[in-house]
Structures are given as structure tokens and as C-alpha cells.
Design a protein that fits this description.
Blueprint lengths: L2 H40 L26 H24 L6 H17 L7 H14 L34 H7 L6 H30 L4 H9 L2 H8 L5 H16 L8 H15 L8 H9 L2 H22 L6 H9 L7 H8 L7 H23 L4 H15 L12 H4 L5 H23 L4
Helix pairs in contact: 1-2, 1-3, 2-7, 2-18, 3-6, 3-7, 6-7, 6-9, 9-10, 10-12, 11-12, 11-15, 11-16, 15-16, 16-18
Length: 448
């Protein structure tokens, strides 16, 4: 390369270093403004995007207009574009986004959504209903749906699809929700929002720790997770218990990969496996990590840790809720039969000219998932990173599920930023982009 060419390349690099931080700041501002737009408009009044709820954000009313689909979808699209650009810049150079700036941005997004109304989902009211069933009415939430407490003030906020459905969540989560029941609907709602916020903060802190332990840029890692539009708007905005499950998941990963010795001690391995079981007692999906953890170590400690935690959980669950409180298989089979309009199975069925998903399709999807998991276990046995294998398994579970919700495709995201298999992150983000494109498709439809 000639001296002139080297000089020109150096000048281009200098110019790039000058504009990149300014562009990153602009993209971060767009993320904040888009989140604020959704929250302020959501607080303005009735909207199909804001579930029927106690008015917990009246103090924000008057700052925006009623949230409509078009405004929401445009804000979601802007958030997605800004997020993609910011992540590309952050991964391009560590100097573009400082540690302080990344933490301030992620914290601002979390707090903006925390301050506003519940967004997009009625699930949190189901959580409260199940808690009030047990504490206020003495009814087992594993035997009855919220219809059993139709006179309770929370019942009118529960989604119509779930009023006759018993809880599908683990006994640990149900017990964690019980202390909130006596606070009333509004108090319990703020308690659920606070739990989700704290779980999110813990997940991000553990993601930072794991990324640094593996030699990755922790700033980029927390931006990928904490600034993700689906994570912020759908996950935290709906106060979903998936965030608590993900906290347990990343706690287990941290114990396994962020220890000082070259390999974690037997006690750490046992504790990590126990944490996975604890996460599964919140939401069973995270149990997918356990076989990969055990296969990768080929030691007795994680097996003993998992068995001990399972035994404790089973005893407590049975003592409080009876056999139905620990019958995970029945809950999984029931939920596996549900079909959502956003699932990949539904979209593929429509592309093939089918009116929907048939029983045989459920069987084919389950078989495909078994093959994928078996292949991942075989690769893990041969030395593939168990964290990456776990992430692929969680992604496969969400893609093959006929009941797909936005927060389900968040499950592999923290794992994807702490593994060297970059394909997992690309695949996770690609699935999220497809989901978002499906959401914004009304914007692309011709005006009639």
C-alpha cells in the first residue's frame, strides 16, 4: 500500500472516530424518545395496546395522546432501527459508547417503562389473581382458574383467555407472589413491576460479569440485552416473570463461567444446577439448560445439586399446593396445545395454504425439537460450548412452539452475548426482527 493510500485510510479512520460517538448519542436518544412516546401515550387514556388496568400512571397523563397502533408500530420500528445501529457501532469500537453512557441509557429505558402503565399484555393480572386466590380466598391456583374469584377486584383485569385456566407457573414463583396479594391490586401491581425491574437489573449485572469473564466487551453485552426493544417494551413493559426466570438462568451461568479457577468447584457446579432448578420452579423452560450443563461437566456435582433442589422444591410444592403444584408435565402438555397468531408454525401453515395448525403439526414440531436438542447434546459431549448449546435449545423451543409471545424470544439473548458462537446472537436477533416485521406489517398494508 502506498504512503498516500495509508494516509487517506488514516484520515478516514480519524473522521470515523469523530462522527461515530455523535451518531451513537443520536441513536441512544431515539431509543429513549421512542420508549417515552409509548409510555406517555399509553398513560393518556384507553388504548387497545394498554390492557384494562388500575390507573397507576395518571400522574403522566396530559403529556401525550391516546396510544394508537400506528404510533406504537412506528415507535417500535424506530426503536429497532436505532438499536441495530447502536449495537453495530458499539461492537465496531469500544470507544464509541462509554461504560457510563451505556449504563445510563439502559437504566433510563428501564425506568421510563417502569414508571408507565402495563404494556401489551394482561399476564401480570393473572399473576396477581393466582396470588390472591391462594392468600385471600384459600383456593388452590393449580386446581382452579381466576373465574373461581369472579368477585375479586382483580378479576376484571384478567385476560379472557385465562379466566378458566389454572396457573402454569412453578410453585416457587407462586410462593414469591403470595406476599404481594394483601397489598391490594394496585399495590400488587407495583410490586410485580418492581420485581421485574430488579430481576432485569440483576440479569444485566450478571450478563456483564459473564461477558467480562469470557473476554467479551461487557458494554456491548448489556446494550444488546438491556436496550433491546422487545426486552424493554414487551418484557419489562409487561412485568413478565420471564425476567425472574432469566435472572436465575444467568446466576447459574455466572457460577459456572465467572469463577476464578480455570474450572468451577464442585460446590459451584452443584449451586449452578440448583439455580437452574429454582428457575424452572418459576418457569419450567429454563430447565433446558440442565442437560447441557451436566453433559459438559461429566461430573456428579451438578446432578446432585439438581436432585437436591428438585427434592426441596417438590416437598415444598406438594406441602403447599398438593400433587398438582408439582405436576409440570400436565401443565406443559396443556400449554403446548395453545396456538398464537404470532407463532412461526401459524405463519408457515398460512404460507402453505392451511387454515391453521393441526394436531399432526404439533407432533411434527415436537419431533423436530427432540432432534435439535439431541444434536446439541451430542455436540456438547464432543466439546461444544454448553452455554451456546443452551441458547440454541431455548431459541428452538420458542421457534417450534405454537404459542409464541415476544418475551419468549428473549430467553436466549443473554446467553448469546456470552458465547463465542456469534451465529447464536445473529439467529436470535434475526428471529426477533422477523417477529417485529410481523408486528409492523399493518403499516405496509395498502390503504383501503
Amino acid at each position: 500500500m502506498s504512503v498516500a493510500a495509508q494516509s487517506e485510510r488514516g484520515l478516514a479512520g480519524v473522521r470515523s472516530e469523530r462522527w461515530a460517538p455523535a451518531l451513537a448519542t443520536a441513536l441512544a436518544l431515539l431509543l429513549v424518545l421512542a420508549a417515552a412516546e409509548i409510555v406517555l401515550d399509553g398513560a393518556a387514556g384507553r388504548s387497545a395496546l394498554i390492557p384494562k388496568s388500575p390507573d397507576i400512571s395518571a400522574w403522566l397523563s396530559g403529556s401525550g395522546e391516546r396510544l394508537g397502533f400506528r404510533v406504537f408500530l412506528i415507535a417500535l420500528l424506530v426503536s429497532t432501527g436505532a438499536y441495530g445501529g447502536l449495537i453495530a457501532l458499539a461492537r465496531r469500537s469500544r470507544a464509541v459508547v462509554s461504560t457510563r453512557s451505556a449504563i445510563v441509557l439502559v437504566a433510563a429505558l428501564q425506568l421510563i417503562v417502569f414508571a408507565g402503565p402495563i404494556l401489551l399484555s394482561t399476564d401480570v393480572f393473572s399473576y396477581i389473581a393466582y396470588a390472591r386466590m391462594g392468600v385471600e380466598h384459600g383456593i388452590n391456583p393449580y386446581l382452579h382458574g381466576p373465574a373461581a374469584i369472579a368477585a375479586d377486584p382483580v378479576f376484571k383485569y384478567v385476560g379472557e383467555d385465562w379466566i378458566h385456566v389454572a396457573t402454569a407457573y412453578g410453585p416457587l414463583y407462586t410462593l414469591l407472589s403470595y406476599p404481594l396479594a394483601p397489598l391490594g391490586v394496585v399495590g400488587a401491581l407495583w410490586g410485580m413491576k418492581l420485581e421485574a425491574l430488579l430481576a432485569s437489573a440483576g440479569t444485566l449485572a450478571l450478563t456483564w460479569r459473564c461477558a467480562r469473564a469470557r473476554g467479551f466487551d461487557p458494554v456491548a453485552a448489556i446494550l444488546v440485552v438491556g436496550a433491546n426493544p422487545l426486552y424493554v417494551i414487551y418484557g419489562l413493559g409487561g412485568a413478565h416473570n420471564d425476567l425472574i426466570m432469566m435472572l436465575a438462568m444467568m446466576g447459574a451461568v455466572s457460577l459456572m463461567i465467572a469463577s476464578r479457577p480455570p474450572a468451577p468447584s464442585g460446590r459451584r457446579e452443584a449451586s449452578a444446577a440448583a439455580l437452574v432448578v429454582a428457575g424452572a420452579l418459576i418457569k419450567v423452560t429454563v430447565a433446558a439448560l440442565l442437560p447441557f450443563m451436566i453433559v459438559s461437566r461429566r461430573r456428579l456435582a451438578p446432578i446432585l445439586g439438581a436432585l437436591a433442589a428438585s427434592a426441596v422444591g417438590a416437598v415444598i410444592g406438594y406441602a403447599v399446593f398438593g400433587i398438582h403444584g408439582i405436576d409440570v408435565i400436565a401443565a406443559l402438555n396443556r400449554d403446548a396445545a395453545f396456538v398464537s397468531t404470532d407463532s412461526f408454525a401459524t405463519e408457515i401453515a398460512h404460507l402453505l395454504g392451511k387454515p391453521g395448525v393441526f394436531p399432526v403439526d404439533h407432533d411434527l414440531l415436537k419431533a423436530a425439537l427432540v432432534v435439535i436438542v439431541a444434536h446439541l447434546l451430542w455436540r456438547t459431549w464432543r466439546g461444544y460450548d454448553w452455554v451456546a448449546a443452551s441458547g440454541w435449545a431455548l431459541l428452538a423451543i420458542s421457534v417450534t412452539s405454537t404459542w409464541l409471545l415476544a418475551w419468549y424470544i428473549l430467553w436466549p439473548l443473554p446467553l448469546a452475548v456470552v458465547t463465542r458462537d456469534r451465529r447464536l446472537l445473529l439467529a436470535t436477533l434475526a428471529v426477533q426482527v422477523l417477529f417485529i416485521l410481523h408486528q409492523i406489517s399493518p403499516l405496509l398494508a395498502p390503504v383501503k
